[in-house]
Backbone:
């Protein structure tokens, strides 16, 4: 007997097409085509669903049908929760952990590893940094592809966790493939429009967004075209206690005759640490995003299809960032008193020091375009097919920075205290008025600009041959050639007035009064910020001429360097990769248990040419060119056994390859000539990351649209990349006067030997068996536990995990959909994780993070209204160094609310 349940719950309408049915997508070569999968409505019973339930059922059908280890999110699920970015949608896949910047999800780790691929329709989605994050990821943010591309244009997200031979190499732990919508997904004409207003409660600003889509098929559904566009203009904000450098080892200058080992109280020869700058910051952005995509398909016969698609994303960000700071010191003479924690952290004290007011105006413009054309041809009997494709991607990012620091002429007595897990405290003398410009002078002005360009041209040719009456069901083979280039040009002009001129030369009051104003932030950090950091005088960099801020303030061109390309911070990397693969698919019936899978091998050969510059001891700059190459054979195998019509088992193995981030391959060195003096350098001789991966899973599809799955994996990581920091005096440089050891330089290096293992659990079920109206409820829950071990040790000899790995990660979603009404609430949790290496090889961690998001909507006819809320608990984001009391970042991004509509015709 067939049972039918009409679940006309609200559709996923926070974005474009959010109210349309979950559409089957045409995937790239080598992945499962959901048009060939078993739909949710044919599993056991015919369940007619729509809205969020339908998207979950479609995604589960893709997971069940494919032979690979893969999870998917289908269109309505992408936009249903109030997700600001694609990365935030991906957090609902077990084993995927997201990284947040300014409160938004910006990038992901898959099974605890960051070196993975992001694709769009099966091809590389290049970002301005080439591959991975980079130095264009300006402080406190990360403008990567998972935050740049609007979720409205997406039909499906695939997370491939075990690479097959036909998948492009470069994923150490997985690939995120963004599948955009196509006209043949839904024959006929479709028009969809949506709009919403967005409110940020922390800085009480409004934003808005909108989208539109038109799709139609013509000539008896043999030709189709799709066009879509999105626009958003939203506020982004953050209040924080922050530090540019974080915690730095205390030097011997901290010692005194009375206390000769003050910098190492426990005498273990490992110095304690102090936070180099004590700053309280307000950051405000307005992000304008424009996106769009187009696609056409021409299928005159069943054996021929010509297709093409293009996707575009534009970002224009205007940022203002102000912070009040007191730089701490490693010199004992500066302190009246201090407190060291049992972990040798300088946590409190009284210091005689200057105060600093800092202001930055930042402009970020980014454009990304990715397109492809190809065809599919097969013989009339369908046994042999060929698919050639050409694609091109280009991403650019221009970053313009104007930064001004004003500093007190005199020193004052400040008392500080780093509160454990709370907002650190800072007080000054009653006689000190931070809003009085007469007490300050200008000390530093930056007029910086950099341009980052990532570009890839690629072509591939894939073949498939279907056998008849054989255990080997299909043989796939293919070739691919690509050229990836990454370019960075840096124009830098940084002027430092302190120490080179008389103290009264650049008094704020002697310059133009229009160049500064008094900041007043009484609600900073929810009202918990120290009073001294909420009312102070600071420059107005946005009011200064771009590229000429120094001259506008100093009026002395001899102290203002010219803006020219800095060869030491500019580079170009070109990679040429040739790959070939052979994959054999098999299928058989073992009694009543269908068996399917594949085995194969991929060969990849990469030649890299890195161009940069190096400074000689004489001070002259010479060009530097480094050529490297690598070649790998990557075998893989996977098998799926359907034990019953509801129980599926999978096992798999693959040798996987991750590639270094482009910026890590730079031969250059970047120096920060502000206290504490530090820098970063690349390593053009880095080798790829390599690992052997084993997977196993048991999946129970116990009802239509419902499943309980359990998976386990193990990775034997042969090589990986880590950062190491140490004091250096680069060629052509001299040690700073007040930091005799030199600059603290952080470089990437290859490490060897590491293990990653974990389990993943997914429970998804609609509760349609409950009596009406309770049958509209449903739940989705995922959980992952991931552990790792490496050969890395922190400066105290303790073993470190892989960067970005949280041991525990889970998401809980409860929803209700019935009678046109829909509601969802989601709880997301990520455990603490090791983020990076700081000065003196200190280990930097992020504390656990929890968020609650919710949405409600009502659908009537073709029109839907909705309201969404994110970060309802106003979660604090906190970073610390080595031990939990060493807070280096304490940030609030506030709640976000939106109301809107969607209509389709």
Residues:
């Amino acid at each position: 007997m067939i049972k039918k349940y009409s679940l006309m719950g609200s559709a996923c309408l926070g974005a474009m097409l959010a109210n349309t049915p979950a559409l089957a997508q045409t995937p790239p070569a080598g992945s499962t085509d959901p048009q060939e999968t078993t739909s949710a409505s044919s599993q056991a019973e015919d369940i007619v669903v729509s809205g969020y339930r339908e998207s979950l059922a479609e995604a589960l059908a893709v997971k069940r049908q494919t032979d690979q280890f893969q999870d998917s999110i289908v269109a309505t699920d992408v936009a249903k929760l109030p997700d600001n970015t694609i990365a935030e949608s991906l957090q609902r896949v077990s084993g995927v952990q997201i990284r947040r910047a300014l409160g938004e999800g910006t990038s992901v780790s898959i099974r605890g590893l960051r070196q993975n691929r992001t694709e769009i329709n099966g091809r590389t989605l290049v970002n301005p940094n080439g591959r991975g994050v980079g130095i264009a990821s300006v402080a406190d943010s990360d403008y990567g592809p998972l935050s740049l591309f609007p979720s409205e244009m997406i039909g499906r997200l695939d997370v491939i966790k075990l690479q097959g031979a036909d998948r492009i190499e470069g994923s150490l732990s997985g690939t995120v493939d963004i599948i955009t919508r196509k006209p043949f997904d839904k024959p006929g004409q479709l028009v969809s429009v949506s709009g919403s207003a967005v409110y940020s409660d922390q800085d009480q600003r409004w934003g808005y967004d909108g989208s539109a889509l038109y799709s139609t098929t013509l000539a008896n559904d043999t030709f189709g075209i799709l066009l879509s566009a999105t626009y958003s203009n939203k506020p982004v904000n953050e209040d924080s206690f922050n530090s540019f450098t974080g915690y730095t080892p205390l030097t011997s200058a901290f010692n005194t005759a009375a206390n000769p080992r003050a910098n190492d109280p426990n005498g273990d020869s490992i110095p304690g640490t102090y936070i180099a700058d004590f700053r309280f910051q307000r950051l405000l952005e307005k992000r304008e995003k424009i996106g769009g995509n187009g696609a056409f398909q021409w299928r005159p016969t069943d054996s021929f299809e010509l297709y093409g698609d293009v996707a575009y994303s534009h970002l224009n960000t205007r940022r203002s960032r102000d912070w009040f700071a007191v730089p701490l010191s490693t010199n004992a003479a500066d302190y009246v008193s201090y407190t060291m924690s049992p972990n040798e952290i300088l946590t409190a004290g009284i210091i005689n020091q200057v105060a600093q007011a800092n202001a930055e105006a930042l402009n970020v413009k980014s454009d990304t375009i990715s397109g492809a054309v190809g065809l599919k041809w097969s013989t009339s009997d369908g046994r042999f097919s060929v698919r050639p494709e050409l694609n091109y991607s280009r991403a650019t990012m221009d970053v313009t920075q104007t930064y001004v620091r004003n500093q007190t002429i005199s020193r004052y007595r400040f008392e500080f205290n780093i509160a454990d897990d709370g907002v650190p405290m800072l007080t000054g003398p009653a006689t000190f008025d931070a809003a009085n410009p007469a007490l300050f002078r200008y000390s530093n002005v930056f007029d910086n600009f950099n341009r980052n360009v990532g570009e890839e041209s690629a072509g591939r040719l894939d073949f498939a041959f279907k056998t008849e009456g054989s255990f080997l069901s299909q043989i796939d083979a293919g070739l691919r050639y690509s050229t990836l280039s990454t370019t960075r040009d840096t124009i830098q002009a940084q002027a430092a007035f302190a120490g080179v001129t008389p103290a009264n030369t650049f008094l704020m009051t002697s310059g133009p009064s229009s160049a500064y104003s008094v900041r007043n932030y009484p609600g900073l950090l929810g009202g918990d910020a120290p009073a001294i950091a909420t009312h102070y005088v600071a420059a107005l960099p946005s009011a200064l001429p771009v590229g000429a801020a120094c001259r506008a303030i100093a009026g002395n061109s001899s102290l203002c360097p010219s803006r020219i390309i800095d060869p030491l911070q500019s580079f170009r990397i070109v990679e040429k990769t040739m790959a070939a693969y052979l994959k054999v698919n098999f299928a058989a019936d073992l009694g009543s248990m269908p068996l399917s899978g594949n085995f194969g091998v991929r060969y990849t050969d990469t030649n890299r040419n890195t161009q940069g510059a190096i400074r000689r001891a004489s001070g002259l700059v010479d060009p530097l060119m480094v050529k490297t190459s690598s070649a790998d054979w990557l075998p893989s195998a996977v098998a799926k056994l359907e034990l019953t019509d509801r129980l599926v088992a999978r096992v798999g193995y693959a040798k996987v390859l991750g590639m270094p981030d482009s910026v890590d391959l730079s031969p250059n060195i970047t120096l920060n000539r502000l206290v504490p003096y530090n820098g970063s350098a690349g390593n053009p001789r880095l080798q790829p990351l390599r690992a052997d991966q084993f997977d196993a899973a048991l999946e129970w599809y116990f009802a239509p649209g419902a499943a309980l799955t359990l998976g386990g994996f193990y990775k034997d990581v042969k090589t990986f990349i880590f950062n190491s920091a140490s004091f250096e005096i680069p060629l052509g440089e001299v040690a700073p006067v007040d930091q005799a050891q030199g600059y603290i330089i952080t470089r990437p290096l290859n490490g060897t030997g590491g293990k990653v293992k974990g389990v993943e659990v997914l429970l998804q079920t609609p509760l349609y068996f409950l009596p009406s109206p309770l049958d509209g409820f449903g739940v989705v829950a995922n959980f992952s536990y991931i552990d790792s071990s490496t050969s890395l040790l922190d400066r105290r000899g303790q073993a470190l995990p892989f960067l970005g790995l949280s041991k525990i990660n889970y998401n809980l979603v409860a929803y209700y959909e019935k009678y046109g009404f829909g509601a969802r609430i989601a709880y997301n949790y990520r455990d603490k994780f090791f983020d990076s290496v700081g000065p003196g090889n200190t280990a930097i961690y992020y504390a656990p993070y929890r968020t609650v998001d919710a949405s409600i909507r009502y659908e009537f006819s073709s029109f839907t209204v909705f309201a969404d809320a994110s970060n309802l608990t106003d979660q604090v984001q906190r970073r610390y160094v080595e031990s939990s009391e060493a807070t280096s970042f304490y940030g609030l991004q506030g709640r976000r609310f939106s109301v809107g509509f969607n209509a389709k015709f």
